[in-house]
Specification:
heterodimer; A: alpha/beta; six-stranded mixed beta sheet; 14 strands; elongated; B: four-stranded mixed beta sheet; 16 helices; 5% strand
Chain lengths: 311, 425
């Protein structure tokens, strides 16, 4: 499929740091794309270049097959930044209309879209409420609507679920899937790894301005698996462990989590268990969670600890 | 351009619909009306009839003459007393008088004696002046009688007067006294606009930054459009308020003119205003006011916008960073007072050419007359420099704004902000 967005050798240096240092990737229409990385990794700078807020120092951005034109292409981009807010004194309906018009929608069209989206997300009754009277979750919904109601080809969502309750989270998640199905790209930036595994098909990981990982969620997990298995057996004796072709990582009465030695196959493990007359109830490969992959890749830096502490 | 217009519309409408705007816009004309009618009313009703005792040692004053003058000018009542003078001196009030004047032994040919109006309360200079004028009229009658000047001769003496007024050869409509007043008012109005609406621009930009809506907006519009939309929107609010006020004043002026007869001093004031308006070059002054208002507003508000974009939510940060700019406006007012005292002096000329002070200082000079006091070349150069000046500040501010609006954390110094301006985009 023809890619909708292609980023090549993008660089942006600030006075004392390389915020984005030679990052390339491409995204096809309909893809939900995860942009991951610790704080200060350069995600926001990267996003700001893709939304036309910053000019890259070097490198190119190709959007819909043509060089990215910040003035005209913003019409096709929807952006929900992490640092987001609204005018407190404005009425909700007017606010959504205003942002839609700034995206370039003529007023009647903007009105139609706002009404349509308010209906979809059951927000009609809010029209005349003031923004300051909204709860955090409600204003989050309004921000989401503002980011997508001009039917953008590229939707960039930075931590879209923060502050949403599970019901509204699911509502937004369904909308994200629906928008992707209709051919929009969703560029999804977050710290919440379980959301990434759930939503994204393709991810890149950025650290210290460089891309350190690029692939589908499945591939990444395969690539970074550590030969860890969960075996449904009773606890082993000291003797058995010493002879086994694996190391015991975690033991319990029900099952044992082991790491198979380099160069040994799963069949050798099974043969060892059979030879020792240990009855096997189950045998299952453990793929690393994205969280684990990231901690390994980013290393034990302060930024990595921030990942570890993330739920 | 279209997006800038959408921003202007929002900035304008949200401000114009605010209660504070409506209140302050209505309050001004009400105060204006209150001032005119209130002062007229007070002038009519607060007149106090002073009952003053004259203790005459000169022997010229007679009760008959005093009574006659008391009926002509009832603002005070003068009565001659000869008995119980000591009681009056001790306590005039219990003797039924507000105060007393001791008239020494005067000579009618050289009556230059200074006397006291002695009383328990203090009276203002206006009241004493009225009593003095009345006393002098009586004194004139006494002198006239002594010199045997009859009434027809008196009429000649009083009627023929010479007066001198200043007239500018270059500009018939220029009038120095009036120019001073109009210059002050125009300069002060521009000063107020720059400070009040300039800080509104600053607060507006800070609000967007604090609200965290700035990044949402810059992904849709250029930062330059955002800034210009805000400046133009607020500029229009200021303009609207002024036009409404001028409209109100005009309306009240016409109403009082139509119903003026019964209102005594109020209509006299309106009459005086009419003289003022016909006495100056109104179209030129209004045009220049509009020009310097807009030019000065763009010049300063773009700087205020830049500061608003650079600071965080802390108002004190904004104040300390905007201090140099506020100082420029205040210095302009100081220069204006010098310029009004000497409108063709070097300070006046230079300050009315340099863009940072020209909106205030030139506006104070123009009422003295163009091209008499302000030659056309000075006016033209001043306008050109102001246009170049605000283009420069808008450019400068746009650079700071672009970086500052997305920058959170430490307050930048002026040095860092200058770096933002001069680094490549």
């Amino acid at each position: 499929m023809q890619e909708l967005l292609r980023v090549e050798h993008l660089k942006k240096y600030f006075a004392n740091q390389k915020a984005v240092d030679d990052i390339s990737f491409e995204v096809a229409p309909g893809q939900i794309f995860g942009l991951l990385g610790p704080n200060g990794a350069g995600k926001t700078t990267l996003i700001r270049m893709i939304t036309g807020i910053f000019y890259p120092d070097s490198g190119t951005i190709t959007f819909q097959g043509k060089p990215f034109d910040p003035i005209h292409d913003v019409r096709h981009i929807g952006y929900m930044p992490e640092e987001r807010g609204l005018y407190k004194k404005m009425k909700i309906g007017e606010h959504a209309l205003y942002l839609a018009q700034l995206k370039g929608l003529p007023r009647p069209e903007a009105m139609k879209q706002v009404k349509h989206w308010f209906e979809r997300l059951e927000m009609q009754s809010w029209w005349n409420k003031k923004v300051e009277d909204l709860s955090k979750g409600m204003s989050q919904k309004l921000q989401f609507v503002s980011a997508v109601l001009h039917e953008p080809k590229l939707i960039i969502l930075d931590e879209p679920f923060s502050g949403l309750d599970p019901v509204n989270s699911n509502l937004i998640k369904d909308e994200i899937h629906r928008l992707a199905k209709n051919g929009s790209i969703i560029l999804f930036s977050t710290h919440r790894m379980e959301q990434v595994e759930e939503i994204c098909e393709h991810i890149i990981l950025v650290n210290k301005g460089k891309k350190i990982l690029d692939g589908t969620v499945g591939d990444v997990k395969q690539q970074y698996k550590q030969n860890n298995f969960r075996i449904g057996i009773s606890p082993l004796t000291e003797d058995q462990i010493a002879q086994a072709p694996f190391d015991l990582i975690r033991a319990s009465t029900q099952d044992q989590i082991v790491r198979i030695h380099e160069g040994k196959s799963t069949n050798e493990v099974l043969r060892f268990l059979l030879d020792h007359s240990i009855s096997v109830r189950s045998f299952e490969e453990l793929l690393p969670s994205l969280n684990e992959v990231f901690i390994r890749l980013v290393g034990d830096s302060p930024t990595a600890r921030q990942f570890q502490s993330a739920p | 351009m279209n997006k800038t217009f959408i921003i202007i519309k929002r900035e304008y409408l949200t401000r114009v619909r605010k209660k504070t705007f409506i209140i302050s816009t209505l309050l001004f004309p009400l105060l204006y009306v209150g001032l005119i009618f209130g002062m007229g009313y007070l002038a009519e009703n607060s007149k106090q009839v002073l009952n003053i005792a004259l203790v005459d040692q000169s022997g010229y004053f007679g009760q008959a003459v005093l009574d006659e003058e008391n009926t002509i000018d009832p603002s005070s009542k003068l009565s001659l007393i000869s008995e119980k003078a000591a009681d009056v001196f001790r306590d005039p009030e219990s003797a039924g008088f507000d105060g007393f004047i001791r008239i020494p032994a005067l000579d009618w040919q050289r009556g230059n004696d200074s006397m006291w109006l002695e009383s328990k309360k203090s009276y203002g200079s206006g009241t004493t002046a009225a009593v003095q004028a009345k006393l002098n009229r009586i004194w004139s009658r006494i002198k006239n009688d002594s010199l045997s000047i009859d009434e027809s001769k008196q009429a000649i003496l009083q009627g023929s007067q010479l007066s001198i007024r200043p007239r500018n050869l270059e500009d018939d409509t220029a009038n120095a006294n009036l120019a001073e007043v109009i210059g002050y008012i125009a300069g002060l109005l521009i000063y107020m606009i720059l400070l009040i609406y300039g800080s509104q621009v600053m607060m507006g930009v800070m609000e967007e930054k604090t609200n965290r809506i700035a990044e949402v907006l810059v992904s849709s519009v250029r930062p330059f459009q955002m800034m210009m939309g805000k400046i133009l929107g607020i500029g229009l609010v200021a303009l609207t308020q002024f036009l409404l006020w001028i409209g109100f004043v005009f309306l009240i002026y016409n109403i009082t003119m139509a119903t003026g007869n019964g209102l005594g001093s109020a209509s006299a004031m309106v009459g005086a205003m009419q003289n003022v308006i016909t006495g100056i070059n109104v179209p030129l002054i209004l045009f220049c006011f509009g020009f310097y208002f807009l030019g000065g507003f763009f010049f300063y508000s773009s700087l205020y916008a830049a500061i608003g974009s650079a600071v965080n939510e802390d108002l004190r940060e904004a104040q300390s960073l905007s201090f140099p700019i506020t100082m420029l406006v205040i210095i302009s007012i100081a220069l204006m007072t010098t310029a009004i005292a000497n409108p063709t002096g070097p300070i006046a000329v230079w300050a009315s050419l340099i863009p940072f002070s020209s909106p205030i200082v030139m506006m104070a000079r123009i009422p003295y007359g163009v091209p008499g006091t302000v030659p056309w070349w000075q006016l033209g150069l001043s306008m050109l420099l102001l246009i170049l000046g605000f283009l420069a500040t808008v450019w400068f501010a746009a650079k700071i704004y672009r970086t500052g609006i997305l920058m959170y954390g430490k307050k930048p110094s002026w040095g860092e902000m200058l770096k933002w301006v001069f680094r490549k985009s």
